[in-house]
Amino acid sequence: MAPGAAGDVQTYHDLTAHEALLLLESDHRTGLDRDEARSRLERFGPNSLPQAKGEGAVRRFLRQLNSPLVIVLIVAGIVTLLLDEVVDSSVIFGVVVINAILGFVQESKAESALEALRSMVHTTATVVRSGAQQRIPSEELVPGDLVLIEAGDRVPADVRLISESHLKVDESALTGESLPVEKGHVLLPTETAVADRVNMAFSGTLVTSGSGSGIVVGTGGETELGEIHRLVGSTETMATPLTRKLAKFSTQLTVVILALAVIAFIAGVAQGESATDMFVAVVALAVGAIPEGLPAAVAITLAIGVSRMARRRAVIRRLPVVETLGSATVICSDKTGTLTENRMTVQSVWTVDGEVAVAGDRASQPGSVGGAVHWCLLVGANCNDAWMAEDGTPSGDPTETAMLTVAQHHGIEPRGLERVGSLPFSSERQYMATTHVDPQTGDRLLMVKGAVERVLHVSTHQMAADGTTEPLDEGAVMAAAEGYAQQGMRVLATAFQRNPEDDALDGLVRGEVHGLVFTGLEAMIDPPRATAADAVRSCHEAGLSVKMITGDHATTAAAIARHIGILREDGDGSVLTGGEIERIDESGLPEAVERASVFARVTPEQKLRLVKALQSRDHVVAMTGDGVNDAPALKQADIGIAMGVVGTEAAKDAADMVLTDDDFATIEAAVEEGRGVFDNLTKFIVWTLPTNLGEGLVILVAILLATDLPILPTQILWINMTTAVLLGLTLAWEPKEPGIMARPPRDPHAPIFGRPEAVRTVLVSLLLLAGSWWVYRSERDAGASIDASRTAAVNVFVMVEAFYLFSCRSLRRPGWTAGLFANPYLVAGVALQAVGQLGLTYVPAMNTLFQTAPIGWDSWLRILAVAVVVSAVVAVHKHLEIGRAARETGTSTARHARTTSRRS
Ligand code: ATP
């Protein structure tokens, strides 16, 4: 039977690797043939999980009705219907349906945005096909493929292991067991439970250490993960702290308003008003005062923020981070690949007898090197996990490809020696080790390459140019390494040992191996990214401190940090090494971490401590990471950022945001967008609340005065629905204000609705109250019909809102400075709203539906006068606020400048 086919219950843990290979017609050296792989892909389909069946459309639509506001509306609609007010009740039900459609559409949009983002981050797998190693998208894996996995990888399919070295896998995604499981390729009895099948690696689990190879036995839905996926399905939530806060605020507001409505109803009826009239009045009060557009506007603004960030190559994985980004105060960035290009080239090879310049990637004199240089390059080329792709380009980790390349240019075959064992590189160990057989002598060889101090630690001898060995002169080697580091170069040392102990690799881990022969140093450059210096400067201007956290040597790190402006020329005191961090006690750490801006030779565990130390000083920390062990620090950080290109799946999994280009400048861009999103949210709230408050007040006053309502419930619904969509929502597309990166970060604890916003809301709503009453009364006094007078009052609300919208385009500057056409949606929205108002006022059908009537030009002049007065008052208030804020910022900037200068 075809393996993996539907209905197939073939298990593999109870077969030997050889049997599994036979069954799947594959080969443990060459893997599948390419053509065979292609035809299997057609047969089995892509290696991706079948789309989980989400909620049905109908249920989703109905769910939109499950909000306090809608329930209020539905009850109002039913009662209105019972009172025989058919037109009113149909308008109310119309609004309920429109509201649900809006919510439904907005939710689907947000979901498809998230879906698109997910597909932007691809996962790849390393396979051997037709004998050649290559990286392919994980979706293209088929049963029978020979895959290689290493620390940080997500296991791309269900795999029967063939070989492994120190392989440990975190299977919590599958089994819930949080401790990594050690894997081996032993044969197991058939009845072994999934959690105990140590000779298998399952799709979706994470390799935490070591490496291995295996044969794919199940892909896509035919994996253990696929099984679970079918059972559970998955839904992504779109909630953020802010949306939650606002949802709570809306609910509380609804309760207060309902209570007010009930009191008003009872008071009115007690005074002898008819219950019907009072009911209409309190419905008006309720629908007017509840900000129905708020949740949708917030969600849409966030969704727009997400897509703006994606366009700037920052993929958001968890929505709350869009908000958090705007208040980040510290960015902790990796060096290699984020601040630098991660394009390494070996510049020099140094041995105890001097330096050989190898100028870029060309050989000085190809094939001419011997003795120590030869051995240095030989170790570099064999103690190496990079590989030559079919077209002859080296692939893999840039440090390793640089070492392969330079060796190849000197006539040394990359990975030419047969390897019998390996200890892969890890950031904690800072070295890699392999064992080989020397084909000429038959000797076994232990080769080590890595950070200079690590390699020297296990070496006792050094090799001279002529190939003889002598006792190690550690001081000379360290001095040479320091010299390269000062030029910002990364330096790796190499060493080897002939016929080591049998378990030399384990011995190294235990720290029991010594006596290696140091062969030389390879110094490589990795140019800083062209954009890094500007991005760092911009962060500094925005009040963010930038810290470099790297596994590299302190001197190298400091040289690069100086180059891109993280470290000032004279900032000697601000470099901390991992060793120094270990010696500082917990209580002193926050202060020390705050002061330093470069952290070198840092292990992933220390990264976690650094994040916590910064957070203890109220910092909002953005932290980048790429390795498997960075995951805890990424989770702890307020904004965990993973590298999309070089990052491991483990890091991406733990991150809130993934950079598709690994570039530091992208983080800065994301912070800028985050600030923009928050601004636009605030603008919407500041714009929308005065209308609700104003409407509520108008109705309340009418009830208290026991007089006709100047606006009817259906008219209020018209105002709220049309203006929220046509006017308010367009604020989500407002471009970022200039100078957005010249302000200090937003205090995350500061209320979104501060004093100036509250004052303005009250001011505008009182003006709306006075304005609408004045216009309404003037109409009545001039003998206009009640319908025409109400139409005029409705137009007051809409026109004031339209004028006020322009003021809200900027919270900090006069509205007119925002540039009229910078936001075409806004202009189009205002135009459409104007058409709508003319329709409401003059189209007979709408007159019937909304109980409106045509009004004359003198009424329009009065309406315009109110709008102009409101705008003038708002402008004056804003001017005063801007002046006050400038004075405050002046003092806080001065304070900020003082703290920054103290820090550096
Ligand atoms: P960061 O992205 O944090 O700046 P980094 O690349 O500088 O990372 P690591 O990758 O953790 O830091 O490397 C730490 C040290 O380990 C390096 O300075 C180097 O000496 C050594 N090293 C790096 N890559 C390898 C490798 N592939 N094999 C052996 N040693 C390595």
From TrEMBL:
GO biological process, one term: proton transmembrane transport
Annotated ranges, domain Cation-transporting P-type ATPase N-terminal: 11-85
Keywords from the named record: ATP-binding, Cell membrane, Membrane, Metal-binding, Nucleotide-binding, Translocase, Transmembrane, Transmembrane helix
Regions annotated as coiled coil: none
Transmembrane segments: 65-83, 89-105, 253-272, 278-304, 684-706, 712-733, 758-776, 788-806, 818-840, 860-877
Membrane topology, as annotated: Multi-pass membrane protein
GO CC list: plasma membrane
Cell compartment(s), UniProt: Cell membrane
Gene Ontology terms for molecular function: ATP binding; ATP hydrolysis activity; metal ion binding; P-type sodium:potassium-exchanging transporter activity
Catalytic activity entry: ATP + H2O = ADP + phosphate + H(+)
Glycoprotein recorded as keyword: no
Family recorded in the similarity comment: Belongs to the cation transport ATPase (P-type) (TC 3.A.3) family. Type IIA subfamily.
Record PANTHER family: CATION TRANSPORTING ATPASE (PTHR43294:SF21), SODIUM/POTASSIUM-TRANSPORTING ATPASE SUBUNIT ALPHA (PTHR43294)
Protein name: Probable cation-transporting ATPase F
Species name: Aeromicrobium yanjiei
Lineage: Bacteria, Bacillati, Actinomycetota, Actinomycetes, Propionibacteriales
